[in-house]
Amino acid sequence: MKFITSVIGGYVLWIIAHYVAANVYPMLCADLTLKGFLMSPFVVATPHCTALRWVIDSGGNVITSMWVVLGAWCISHII
Fold it and tell me: For the stretch 41-72, what's the b/e string if a residue is b when 16 or more beta carbons lie within 10 angstroms of its beta carbon?
């Protein structure tokens, strides 16, 4: 039971990280103004924007894998 709780906790943390990064990225790295558009080629290479993109990408991959694992687990228990 402790293992299952830690696995679910890990997925919840990834979901939170992905949600926060996906909502913070537009504010910090892709502002919807003319200034934001002009600054985007310079801001996109900054460490915080690179880290946010990594969290968004990796978080999406982990969440997708979570659904595959959950589906496989459900099918294995149905059959």
Answer: eeeeeeeebeebeebbeebeebeeebeeeeee
